[in-house]
Specification:
Elements (H helix, E strand, L loop, with lengths): L1 H33 L1 H23 L1 E6 L7 E5 L4 H10 L3 E6 L8 H7 L3 E3 L4 H14 L6 E4 L16 H10 L3 E6 L15 E7 L9 H22 L17
Parallel strand pairs: 1-7, 2-5, 2-6, 3-4, 3-5
Antiparallel strand pairs: 6-7
Length: about 250
Amino acid sequence: MAYAWRWLRSLVFSLQIYAMMAIMAVFFTPWALFDRRGAFAAVHTWCRYVRWSARWMLGLHSEVRGEVPTGEVMIAAKHQSFFDIIILVSELPRPKFIMKQELRRTPILGWYAQRIGCVPVDRGKRGAAIKAMMERVRSGRQEPGQLIIYPQGTRVAPGAHREYKVGTGLLYQEMGTDCVPVACNVGVFWPRQRIYREPGLAVLEFLPQIPPGLELRQFMTRLEDEVEARSNALMAEAGFDAPPAPTPPTRPST
């Protein structure tokens, strides 16, 4: 009975946040059409609303640890569910994502993502996607901000293992800026493809910056080691026992 009640509350929560998304989109669109500050105000307001409503409707609290970057940096984040995106966007002043090309066609989300400067790429063409990412960043068409990339390329459930994509390292070398790794335990409470949400404390943590100039293999190894180790620690803090990671593949040296 308790599970059914929480499942129902989770369903109502999901429905109302998307209804609020539509309402806020209508409210903010006139401003966002003429000024990107309107688009950022819209996404910040909605994401903070989701965190607030998750707290009082579901008992799902969220916490951000570490120093939130405000300058022009690359952020390489652990991605477990939609909620870690929401937390990131609610905290960063000028977030922009490397996002799937098909998200451009998503109602509301797609338009606002483009309006704040997200970079769409075709993940099905790996080499072309990496080239497109670097060209868009190098061209200066994107306004200054915090460029977010998910090194594993997709959401990864707690306890699952997925290779870190070399495109993250190539982008790090191309940009020549600091990289801020981000760990989280969000998937323990907000699963990838389920309605049910668990109560608890979802944590997203900004880790110490990785300075520019590292060799590709060194950067990729350091990024994966730091993000995975800290994410596992945060999941353990939440009561989830992550299985040991498999032996990582050999990294490219150029």
